[in-house]
Amino acid sequence: MSIGYNKLIETFDRQIKAEHYANDGNLERCESYWAKALFMASAKLSIHDWRRIRDEDFWIGYDSRKGIERKRFTLNKISQYSSNYY
Question: Model confidence over 36-63: pLDDT tens digits?
């Protein structure tokens, strides 16, 4: 059984709303906010795209970060890739 894109976005929105209050209204500190941004940015990427994004330099930077910083780093790499290839 597959969950549709819109259903996943609704789920992210509910999680963000709950975390938003727990983080004193600061979206930047909400794990689900970054997960949603990463999901939306990566939804159209192919396996080939991911192979290009996740090169050796990616893993060095990724492994040196944790939590939200990893999501932000990955999102930045996707943005860089998209600006070069799309």
Answer: 999 999 999 999 999 999 999 999 999 9
